[in-house]
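Record 1 of the preview.
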Amino acid sequence: MKKLCLKIVMGIFVLLIIGGALLWNMLSKEHREARSLSLDSHYFKHLQDGIYTGKYEGGMYKWRANSVQITISSGKVTAIELLQNKENKPLEFTNTLYGKVIASQSLQVDTLSGATLTSKAYLKSVESALSKAQIPE
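->
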């Protein structure tokens, strides 16, 4: 009976190790992808007034999917509103991040401490909206 219990415990232990390794691999891939997101800063040069929406699909596993609405007035971003997100970050998070974008009129802002990957994902949806607001040259 003791041998059977030991085999069961060892089997569970092995399964936990394998599951943990698979999860770690999955998380590592997603983090590498999120870290490599680039943000294009040229989108603030020629903006057409109006309201535009943008979205980011959330990466490999769609964990950071989000969409925004931006308002352009007098060629400047005057408002950014989060429409949808999967992570359910508090409004304080997005208001702080979007406030930095509006103040600097740039996507090249400091990301929020402890949420660098999420910040970049939220900025990608703003970039998507900005690409629609471009005045054709």
